[in-house]
Amino acid sequence: MPFANNQRITRRRSSAGPTPPKRPIGNNSESFGRQAQGPRPTFLTLRDHGKVFVADLPNLSDGQLAHISKEANEVLNSLEKRLSDLENEPNVSNPENDTLIKASTKRDVTLRFIKSIEEEQEHRKNNPALRDAASESLPRTFLEVARHRLPGATFDSLLREALEACAVDESTKENQVIDEPKETVKIMDIPSSNTNASLVVSIDSSDDSKNDSI
């Protein structure tokens, strides 16, 4: 018998398991975006270098680290002065003030950034691998420094190129034929009055040399 309202009714099977909870679409997309991005990397915007990330500090030279540390301390001093002025203002002393919150957050980020620079500088001074390489030879010391300064892909590419150049040089030396004079040994019978004939062995440095008569 056909349905009067022409609508099909479907029932969910009991073996399909429990019904998953329904979440709001807007909140789900926002939470997914936060999970996909992860924690924001720590960086500091400086006057001469622009954005400098903490992850890039190992790739910088000692001079660059010193210059960046100087700029970061200048930013910190400016922020502390700004915070002091804001706290002294009667209208801005409210803890929920946006300007005060932003300045405090930037000061905390700057402090973490300066601490990361100091840790990197301390690590370079007390690096046992670098000290061992320095006590052995200059090439190994240079290799150790390059391994820490250069990005992984760049270091591997340069090392592979150097190894290939050394391999070509070794194969060239093996293919070279070195002509050296060959020594020849000649045995001559010398007649003698004795019953037993004596043998004299002479060694010539070349095939063209003539035997001296004895």
From TrEMBL:
Residues 1-42 are annotated as: Disordered. This is Putative conserved carboxylase domain. It comes from Prochlorococcus marinus str. GP2.
